[in-house]
Design brief:
alpha/beta, seven-stranded mixed sheet
Length: about 250
C-alpha cells in the first residue's frame, strides 16, 4: 500500500529494492528509525510481531498518531479548507502553536505537506489539486493499528529495541543535504552520521541503511555489504530524467 503523504527523501521509488534487501525470515521486530513518510513500512507485505515507526520530527509523529487514532477528526478539520497560498502561509505560522489541539496541529501539518513544493515544507506548491481529500486516512488507520509510534533520538530508539531478531531500517538525512529537512535534519551533523555508523556496527540485530552515494559514507560503512542502486531524480531540472545514485547498506 502507499503512504498517505509525500516526504523529502521518501523511498517511494526505491521501496521494491529496499524490501528485497530484507531478510526472508527471522524478523520478530521491525523498526524504522527515521520514519519520514513510512513508504517502506506501508509497502512491506511481511509484518513482524512488533513494528515500530519513529521520527525525531514531533509534528510528523503527531500526524501519524492522530491518523492512527482520529482520522475522521482530521478529515473534518480539513473539510472546508481552501487550497491557497494564503492558507498555506497561515498554517505554516500556526501549526506549532501550543494552544492548538493535537488534531488541529495534525490537520494543518497534513495540509502543509500536501501543499508544499516537493514536500519540502518550505514553499507553496502552486499546483491545482484537491488538497483536503483525506479519505485514504481510514485505510492508513487500519495499517497503523499494530504499529508502535515513537518520537525518540536514533540512539535511544536503537538501544531500546535492539535484539537478535530485530531488523532496523535506517533512512537518515542524506550526507550534505541535512539542511533541506523540515525538522531534525539540520541537527544531523557530520558527527551524527559517524555515531549512527558506530552504533550499527555493534548492534545485536540486523540493519539496512539507505544513503546517497558519497565517498564519506562508503568509508564510514567499510566492511558492510554495500549495494549501489539508482532512481530518477524527480526534482532535477531535466524533468526527472537524471539518475540519482544511492547506496543500500547491510550488516549481514
Amino acid at each position: 500500500m502507499n503512504s498517505f503523504i509525500s516526504w523529502m527523501g521518501g523511498k517511494k521509488l526505491l521501496r521494491n529494492a529496499i524490501c528485497e534487501c530484507f531478510p526472508a525470515s527471522g524478523v520478530e521486530k521491525y523498526v524504522e528509525v527515521f520514519g519520514g513518510a513510512a513508504w517502506i513500512l506501508f509497502h512491506r507485505d511481511k509484518h513482524a510481531k512488533l513494528e515500530v515507526y519513529n521520527d525525531i520530527n514531533s509534528s510528523l509523529v503527531n500526524l501519524f498518531k492522530c491518523v492512527k487514532h482520529h482520522p475522521n477528526a482530521i478529515k473534518e478539520e480539513l473539510e472546508n479548507v481552501l487550497y491557497s497560498r494564503v492558507t498555506y502561509s497561515e498554517f505554516m505560522d500556526l501549526h506549532r502553536n501550543s494552544a492548538l489541539t493535537d488534531i488541529q496541529r495534525a490537520a494543518m501539518y497534513f495540509y502543509i505537506i500536501r501543499a508544499s513544493f516537493g514536500s519540502k515544507i518550505s514553499s507553496f506548491g502552486a499546483k491545482s489539486r484537491d488538497i483536503t481529500d483525506a479519505e485514504y486516512l481510514s485505510v492508513i488507520k487500519e495499517r497503523l493499528k499494530r504499529v508502535v509510534i515513537e518520537n525518540k533520538s536514533f540512539e535511544s530508539l536503537i538501544k531500546q529495541y535492539d535484539r537478535p531478531h530485530t531488523l532496523f531500517y535506517c533512512d537518515p538525512p542524506y550526507f550534505g543535504t541535512e539542511r533541506y529537512y523540515d525538522h531534525g535534519g539540520s541537527d544531523f551533523v557530520r558527527d551524527s552520521h559517524i555515531k549512527l555508523a558506530d552504533i550499527l556496527r555493534n548492534i545485536k540485530g540486523r540493519c539496512v541503511v539507505s544513503y546517497n552515494d558519497d565517498e564519506f559514507i562508503r568509508r564510514l560503512y567499510e566492511g558492510f555489504d554495500i549495494e549501489e542502486v539508482s532512481r530518477q531524480n524527480n526534482l532535477s531540472p531535466h524533468n526527472g530524467q537524471e539518475a540519482y545514485r544511492e547506496l543500500l547498506i547491510k550488516n549481514y
